[in-house]
Specification:
3-stranded antiparallel β-sheet; disordered N terminus; 453 residues
Length: 453
């Protein structure tokens, strides 16, 4: 691993899930002119990092920069792609006046982050796995590029990938995974190591999951409510993002048209002697106001990305619910199979045969079985029943363990979600207030210019 210097980082069912966590922590604010740039940057990343986890006690993790590269893909065709620099360094206290240790660094493609997340999904089906940032821009307004190689988009994705790593590293279970640790520390051989785990053989087929969803007879009401809530949350956040994109489009136009004030005031000032200076100054204020929208909307994208994270989180929640449906379906199938075997044994032992069963029809055609044949079949069925009881017991234990682990993680996620979304919405509101205050200040300045004419 090479060493490098650090780079600069930048409803009723709904009520069950949406219960407020009751946190009273002070909220950091973006775009409030009274805060420092460091506070602003911390809020943009906005991750609920549990620093008590063992991994984050040992190392600091960041995605420091992104780089565009060109190379040949698997079908030997030239392609341009982006790689991201992961920096890790020991989480040690630096002595006063001393320098922090140089970080260990390695480069990763987005596809490698995808492979890591797929591995985590399969290996920890009871965990709500943190989502990756979008691969291609969604919910964009017309001035925002949808190109996945656009520098602004790549930068936002860099922040999102760092947030993903910090989410995993702060998770009480995921942070202890060896494959995740290798992802952070071993550039070569990591892909081979993750494939050697055989996780791909454990992937549940989509057809099997669909079958479970439609055929489960006794679904757990808690998971059913959670899945419905997840669908509702997905819908609400999607609507918010669409509204925000439409507002951004209109706001951009409103701000930019203020540049016309600046042009007209400047032209007017040329024909006035007494009022010329005041008009010229007012025009400059209008130009400044018109230009400020670019930074405002770029900053807004960070809040949109926070909402998008929870839009993608809804898929992770549904994944846990689908896995529970599959386990429940297999449990019900094991119970049904055991019941059938016991029924077969009872028929053999009592000689009672249902007329419309296959065995009943066979007896009518070929006669009754001998006592010896029945005893042999009973013995075989007894062994089969014992195996079925063992299988049922195993499935019951698997189901109980899954529910216990999953609900522990769901409760953790609920607390995280409530905190993150509350802070993001409050900070977004404060940013809008700050933006309006700036507008008021511009017109106040213009008023002063007019007063001096």
């Amino acid at each position: 691993m090479r060493r490098a210097s650090s780079a600069d980082s930048s409803s009723s069912r709904s009520q069950m899930i949406m219960a407020d966590s009751g946190s009273s922590e002070e909220v950091a604010v973006i775009c409030n002119t009274d805060i420092t740039s460091t506070e602003s940057e911390n809020n943009i990343i906005n991750t609920m990092v549990e620093r008590g986890t063992a991994l984050l006690k040992k190392m600091e993790i960041s995605v420091a920069e992104a780089d565009k590269r060109t190379g040949k893909n698997t079908v030997n065709m030239q392609e341009t792609y982006t790689v991201y620099l992961i920096e890790t360094r020991p989480a040690e206290t630096v002595s006063e006046g001393g320098l922090p240790p140089a970080p260990d660094t390695l480069w990763r493609r987005y596809s490698e982050f995808e492979l890591l997340r797929t591995y985590l999904l399969v290996t920890y089906p009871y965990v709500i796995i943190p989502p990756l940032p979008e691969k291609r821009a969604e919910f964009v307004w017309h001035k925002l590029s949808a190109d996945n190689l656009d520098p602004d988009f790549v930068e936002r994705r860099r922040v999102g990938l760092e947030n993903f790593l910090l989410r995993v590293a702060s998770h009480p279970v995921l942070s202890n995974d060896n494959i995740f640790f290798l992802f952070l520390t071993e550039e070569k051989g990591w892909r081979e190591a993750v494939l050697e785990t055989g996780f791909q053989d454990k992937v549940d087929s989509r057809l099997k999951s669909l079958s479970a969803m439609f055929r489960v007879k006794n679904p757990d009401k808690r998971f059913t409510a959670l899945k419905h809530y997840s669908d509702d949350l997905n819908t609400v956040i999607s609507q918010l993002l669409r509204i925000r994109a439409r507002v951004a489009d209109r706001l951009y136009g409103v701000y930019k048209v203020h540049a016309n004030y600046g042009r007209v005031f400047s032209e007017w000032s040329a024909i006035e002697k007494e009022m010329g200076d005041g008009l010229q100054s007012a025009g400059h204020h209008m130009d400044t106001y018109a230009a400020s929208i670019d930074d405002i909307l770029e900053e807004e994208e960070h809040y949109a990305d926070q909402l998008k994270e929870y839009l993608f989180y809804t898929d992770a929640v549904r994944s846990v619910c689908k896995k529970h449906e599959l386990i429940q379906y297999e449990l019900e199938m094991a119970a049904q199979d055991l019941t059938y075997r016991k029924q077969q044994k009872e028929e053999l032992a009592t000689g009672t045969v249902r007329i419309f069963s296959l065995k009943g029809m066979t007896s009518k055609l070929f006669g009754q079985e001998t006592q010896e044949q029945r005893e042999s079949k009973v013995a075989a069925l007894e062994q089969s029943i014992q195996e079925g009881e063992d299988a049922l017991k195993e499935k019951n234990a698997e189901s109980q363990e899954f529910v216990e682990k999953a609900w522990t993680d769901i409760e953790r996620f609920k607390e995280q979600k409530d905190k993150d979304l509350r802070e993001a919405l409050i900070s977004y509101a404060i940013m809008q207030i700050s933006m309006c205050k700036k507008g008021i200040q511009v017109w106040s300045n213009a008023k002063e210019c007019f007063n001096k004419m």
